[in-house]
What we know:
The chain is built from 16 helices and 17 strands. With 457 residues, it is α/β, with parallel strands linked by helices. It has 3 domains: 132 residues, Rossmann fold, CATH 3.40.50; 142 residues, Response regulator (Rossmann fold); 151 residues, 2-Layer Sandwich (Alpha-Beta Plaits). The protein has a 5-stranded parallel sheet, with helices on both faces. Strands 7-6-8-9-10 form a 5-stranded parallel sheet, sandwiched between helices. A 5-stranded mixed sheet has the order 12-13-11-16-17, with helices on both faces. The longest helix has 33 residues.
Amino acid sequence: xxxxxxxxxxxxxxxxxxxxxxxxxxxxxxxxxxxxxxxxxxxxxxxxxxxxxxxxxxxxxxxxxxxxxxxxxxxxxxxxxxxxxxxxxxxxxxxxxxxxxxxxxxxxxxxxxxxxxxxxxxxxxxxxxxxxxxxxxxxxxxxxxxxxxxxxxxxxxxxxxxxxxxxxxxxxxxxxxxxxxxxxxxxxxxxxxxxxxxxxxxxxxxxxxxxxxxxxxxxxxxxxxxxxxxxxxxxxxxxxxxxxxxxxxxxxxxxxxxxxxxxxxxxxxxxxxxxxxxxxxxxxxxxxxxxxxxxxxxxxxxxxxxxxxxxxxxxxxxxxxxxxxxxxxxxxxxxxxxxxxxxxxxxxxxxxxxxxxxxxxxxxxxxxxxxxxxxxxxxxxxxxxxxxxxxxxxxxxxxxxxxxxxxxxxxxxxxxxxxxxxxxxxxxxxxxxxxxxxxxxxxxxxxxxxxxxxxxx
Length: 457
């Protein structure tokens, strides 16, 4: 795993030392000697990680970090503060400025590379989500919105034994976040996976005699419900191997005992904020996908989704000798509705028809608006006789109750339905839909407001 790393330090010897270590591990290294040059390099080169010294003339590292994290175009870039300052309050200052991590000089090589690899994985995921999200401009506007990442307390799960002395710590953290405490791994898994509101951070204390902390972290990373949830572990200073294995399996952050309350709170804030940022990206990606396959007026699937999904379904059902039917549904005299009541009224009719399609089909059925007033309903594992009954039930549901255009005005609406069933190994998507369309046209010619079943080819 490689990455582009920007090293920022006003002492040339420190820069050259880090540059040599990172280059030896095949990282692409950029350098800057002061805060202004660092900000310019971040804007121009968009590094994957910034290793940032604090004590620099002019703009110090804390201010550089704040500026990087306040810009929506760069706030997703991980920043690691590297400094000789080793007091908890110094680490807290860096974390509160938005830093993703903190390393103390002289930097331990193992800790440095583990941190870089962990943050590189995070950066790659974030980049992929940003690339798929709905447009960079829209995303930046979203991230500039006050409170976009939320000021509400984070939902945190702490896994610690009952005799570990965390009561006072929990009380302190509880002033800022919603903390739940469990005492063993099995309860932690159940609690994390069965909740309706997902946890935004899981803290695992490695002082447990009754369960293996590493195994719990591994299980949390393997389960769908907790795969993306940040994990912070608390270990003893002499537990380097446990720490390294934890970071290697995807643990996001750690603290060494004795735990400083302020530093723990700052790290919780950082992880919760990062989680919410990633959740916004994932939601944006999901919305983009839904927009690509969903008809915005009715909320049903669109023609693109139908063509892709139905072709796979037909192949699946033919290979297994299963039955499948489709309904071609068309609103009768729809042009007259638009001409008489206006296009807004026509849109309301289509929206209501979409709702009635959902009401009268099963959850496994696939309802699509293919264009204008035309709809296709796919009925998996459904023979012709059953499909005909479903089509007739749908037709009656539409005709039985007028469609509301506003509070006082309604309009009677009917539909014509053509029905076709998958014939066998030689059938295709095009032939199936063509038979359904031909049956629909027959229903139109014979007087509308009826169901016509396609004849076998």
